[in-house]
Hints:
The chain is of the alpha+beta class. 39% of the residues lie in helices and 22% in strands. It has helices at residues 16-21, 44-54, 74-93, and strands at 2-3, 11-12, 30-37, 58-66. The chain has a two-stranded antiparallel sheet with strand order 1-2.
Amino acid sequence: WVQGLLVTKVGPATGVLQGIDDLPELRGLPAATFCTCDVAPRGTLRVLAERLGDRGAGVVGGFAFKRKKSLRHVPAYVDAVLPALRAASTAATA
C-alpha cells in the first residue's frame, strides 16, 4: 500500500522498506515490484526497485494497482512479469 497525502509525501507504506532491508542479500535474484494506491503511486515503484537493487536483486518490472480497479489488471501483470522473471533467473544461474 502507498501512504501519504493526496499528491505529496507519497511513498511505500510504513514498514515496507524495513522489510526489504531485512531481506538477506539477493545476489542477482530477479524481483518484480507492485503497489496499491487510490490516486497515484508517485515514486513508490522507483523507491521499491532501488531498495531491492541495494539488496542485490535485479528488478524486472513493476506495476501500480489502483485499489478499486486492481483485480482486472493482475492477470496481465503476471503474464508480463513471469517471462521476465524466468529469463532473469536463467541468466543469473548461467
